[in-house]
Amino acid sequence: MNVFRLLGDVSHLVAIIILFLKIFRSKSCAGISGKSQVLFALVFTTRYLDLFTSFISIYNTVMKVVFLVLSYATVYLIYLRFRSSYDSESDTFRVEFLLVPVAGLSFLENYDFTPIEILWTFSIYLESVAILPQLFMITKTGEAESITTHYLFFLGLYRALYLANWVWRYHTEGFFDQIAVVSGVVQTIFYCDFFYLYVTKVLKGNSKLTLP
Amino acid sequence: DEAVPTKDEL
Asked: How many CA atoms does the CB half-sphere of A207 hold within 13 Å?
């Protein structure tokens, strides 16, 4: 474990908690893409199948359980508890355009052609594009509440910190996971446009992000 | 299949 990965995991946890609390306390999921949240729940489900078979550390197990519980709880809030506030007309990204290529690629490019490894690869590829429905929804509505932008900031920051973690691990222990690194770079690039808007608009104290 | 990197990350 290194400081970059720890800060990355904390940033990821903060993002997930920010979103969950925003929906739970405002009793509304307006402006939130339910599709992205379903994709994230799928990412955790296909990645953490080894939850009961391989024990890494208490931290690893606890964080996996927390991520799984909070992601499914968020999907529950959006599609069941506060479904009247779910803006399905704006959440129109065709997720099949993500799932099919990601599934195909995970069969073609993986470390080992076994179910558990292909599902892990699927989760890595899927995570890199899972935010697209949410970013698409913001461009479509032309705005986002500031709390939603803070969620996106910490979510984007987490994988950027993981890139630093992989640089650190490469130089200190020769660790290199090509599939995770390439996907992580792609994932972080998708946030660059948002990061620019976040820094130039939201941090200037605007109540919410309105796209030009 | 090349060696599978350890999966100790979240």
From this structure: 0
